[in-house]
Amino acid sequence: MDSLITAAAHALANGDPLGALNRVALREDAPALALRGIAMAQLGDLVRAKALLKSAARTFGPKEAVARARCLVAEAEIALVSRDLGWSAKALDGAQATLEAHGDRLNAAHARNLTARRLLLIGRLDEAERALAEQDPIRLPPALRAAYELAIVGIAIRRLQTKAAHDALIRAAQAAREAGIPALGAEVEYASATLNAPAARLIARGQERLLLLDEVEALLSSGALVVDGCRNVVRDAKGVVSLATRPTLFALARTLGEASPGDASRHTLVARAFHGKDADESHRARLRVEMGRLRVELRELAEVSATKQGFTLKPRRANEVVVLVPPVENQHSAVLALLADGESWSSSALAISLDASPRTVQRALEQLATEGKVQSFGQGRSHRWIASSVPGFPTSLLLPAPLPNG
Questions:
Q1: 3-195: CATH homologous superfamily?
Q2: Which ranges of 122-161 does DSSP label H, i.e. alpha helix?
């Protein structure tokens, strides 16, 4: 490897893409193409970067498997940054195996970090954790160590483990300072802002207030019966009942929770659950049926009882009933929560992350665009969506991940 290639590689490692381009911008050999691609990625021109890396991978000879694997890892990182979750995870696994087999420990670690971050985006936390567990962060250079710790922060936030998230954030900040790369510092600041932003609203006894993530964690272990509008579950300290696929039942549970310790009138229950203005006899009959179903679903957690005016929700083990909802409610809050990371997403990537149909996500995006809450750019496969400024977002409780069961 000649001196210009070496100098350009050092410049990229230190977060200086312009310095790298000054050395290799006019060269068309495979190593120079690869370095130019990485530099363009650092400068934000992801389309050009991807094209250069593909060209470099084709230009490397058949005996240069490690170089081709490095190009593939760089392409995978571009896909991750551009929120293109449709790229081949198997290809990245193959590149990682090639790098490990040839002793390129650092690039293999980088590939493993990318795998973990992709798994994190689609809510597969256990798999992401296993990917990270295969490496020792102490042996990583500062930039890779910061990326590793940021992935740990993401997992801890999704699991509502705020102390673990804060500890990992401190380590990530230290590693980012050692690396001296501004982009890493910005990622740490974003993660810190997420931890310190309102994560939910608490509704209890007719009062509302915003909660930070650590307050949500404390609430879930407080002994209260929580009707959780972020995950559409009802839970206490010993059990969880998911109503995510039963929107009518959850609407009834939430209405009862907001009225607790009193009762909710039949008129209010019909209006909230069935969107009916007047509770006629057909609505009342349907309400009785749905309340019977809710009573069965919540039988281990609470008693649903009829009163003269309506119905009431009484916890069996908990000391009170509270309702947890997003800080800003919207029919498509989960889509907004993902877009609020500041990156541009493809609609297909949003569908993968939310485990929803592409058409459902597309309809949500079109409605949000009409309301001025998101905007798009690009055409065809390059079509991407970003969020407009939405007060109160992001909230980690709307991101893909299960709530803790304990």
A1: Tetratricopeptide repeat domain (1.25.40.10)
A2: 125-133, 142-158
- CATH no. for 200-325: 1.10.10.10
Q: What CATH class is the domain 333-398?
A: mainly alpha
The answer to whether the peptide bond before residue 391 is cis (omega within 30 degrees of 0) is no
pLDDT one-digit tens code per residue, 14-63? 888 999 999 999 899 999 999 999 999 888 888 899 999 999 999 998 88
Q: Global pTM?
A: 0.83
Single out the residue of 109, 29, 154, 50 nearest to residue 381, CA to CA: 50
Q: Residue 263: phi, psi to the nearest 5? A: -110, 160
Encoding tokens for residue 244? 């995510």
Q: Which residues contact 28 (CB under 8 A, 6 or more apart)?
A: none
* Dist CA 326 CA 394 (whole Å): 10
120 neighbors 153 (Cβ within 8 angstroms): no
Buried b (16+ CB within 10 A) or exposed e, 386-397: bbeebebbbbbb
